[in-house]
Amino acid sequence: MTRSRRWRAAGTIATVTALCLLCAALMRYTSPADRRILARWSVLHSGLILVVLIVLGVVLYRAWASRGSTTAGPGGWVTLGGGLGFLAWSAGFAIDSLEEATTGGRLGDLRLFSSTAPVPIVLEWVAMLLLSSALLARLIWTRPPRRIGWAGNLLVVGVSVVLGLLLLEGAVRLVSLIVPEVQGFPTRAQALWTRRFVRLNTLGYRDDERTPDGRPGVTRILLVGDSFAYGMGINDPEERVGDLLEVTLNRAVGAPRFEVVQGAVPNTHTLHHIEALRRLLVFRPRYALLLYVFNDIAHVARPANGARPRLGPLWRVLLQNSVAAEQVFVRLRAASYARFGTTVADPYADPALLSEHLGALAEFTRIARDAGVEARLVPVDLTVRLEARFLERYRRFEQAAVAHGIPVWSLETAFDGHAWPELVVNRLDNHPNELSNALMARAIAERFHAEFLPPRRLD
């Protein structure tokens, strides 16, 4: 057997293996609504499985039919490169499906290279490199330029651009794996950060497992909120405001008398927080703190977050499949917010919207009070250190909340003496960093101590 035939045979084996892995991953998927086929799959998904099986049959038939072929040239190694590329991609897809069965449904959204797991992210890039190389080699072999001229130069430029983009994609994927970070947008880097640093309890909160009875002699404080209380961007959960508050209070009283039960979930608003309060009252807290952020008004109106870049279908597909394109987008997005943030109407300036929103916050307080729980609203806004208009908004909101009978613990001065860049996680994400969480915890502990405990110094 010639070397070319051995390469071709190896490429065929890789392709067959890849098709089997792909089919297995697709079969693990269960359609969310339409399950007309075998009470499991939609007609579209069943058709996709059928297509893969047909392609598998065609590849096997062609391999059998060409077993005596003596074709020469680069066709063998092109087949091998393409087969290995397809195998790398399908292996990553299969690994994803073992962890999350819904992976099988992402092909319908053209999310071919959109994994958020470490090994598949690398395998996807290897697949990009091998498949692109095989495709370029096939094009050059079938339509070689007859002479070095503009066509040859154009080919060299095209190959160089493709190679450069692939190297850039690989480098960005590697950086995202090594140094994952939150980015204010659901990127691969942010998903990898969550995967590495976040552990949830059985209730879905970033907290320890709790029992309803708790420990004798220990008073529970329930902390409810969104990504700020959750600790988005805080690698060590013990550096979050809730954990720091517990340590500070216990240090002040000289004994482990307080326990902070944390019920925070990112991307939530006041109505979600009301439901979280109802759910977590089973842990019998004595106090409930709502760590309020100035996008919690989203249940009545979208808060003023600046202009959002509008993306067409092609751009969406590109972002879903390229980590490099995704990183370019998040930076353009941040620049867009910085430029157009003042042009969007602020719902906190609308009396009707604000009144409806405050009604929901008052409901949170009422539910806690009816359960015998002391509730306090704790508004947090790092932007008070950025512009005077945000400080004015903070004060107006606080006054309006008090006028609605909502007890408020102000953190207006908690960040005094610190500039905006010192307080946020990174330049792409405005969540509070470890310093901000420490400042918040100390300010809340001081208010808690002043209102509920005998006078004592907080170290």
Describe the structure in your own words:
Helix 10 packs across helix 11. The protein has 15 helices and six strands. A hairpin with a 2-residue loop joins strand 5 and strand 6. With about 450 residues, the protein is an alpha/beta fold. It is elongated and about 90 Å long.
Name given to the CATH homologous superfamily of the largest domain: SGNH hydrolase
Mean pLDDT: 89
Helix content: 40-55%
Largest sheet: 4 strands, parallel
Keywords:
single chain; 459 residues; alpha/beta; Rossmann fold; 2 domains; four-stranded parallel sheet; two-stranded antiparallel ribbon; 15 helices; 6 strands; 8% strand; elongated
Short description:
By secondary structure, the protein is an alpha/beta fold. The chain has helices spanning 3-28, 43-65, 75-99, 118-142, 150-178, 188-197, 227-230, 241-253, 270-280, 313-321, 323-340, 351-370, 388-403, 420-423, 434-452, and strands at residues 219-225, 258-264, 287-293, 374-380, 424-426, 429-432. The chain is 55% helix and 8% strand.
What's the structural blueprint in terms of helices and strands?
Blueprint: H1 3-28, H2 43-65, H3 75-99, H4 118-142, H5 150-178, H6 188-197, E1 219-225, H7 227-230, H8 241-253, E2 258-264, H9 270-280, E3 287-293, H10 313-321, H11 323-340, H12 351-370, E4 374-380, H13 388-403, H14 420-423, E5 424-426, E6 429-432, H15 434-452
Parallel strand pairs: 1-2, 1-3, 3-4
Antiparallel strand pairs: 5-6
Helix pairs in contact: 1-2, 1-3, 3-4, 4-5, 5-6, 5-11, 8-15, 9-12, 10-11
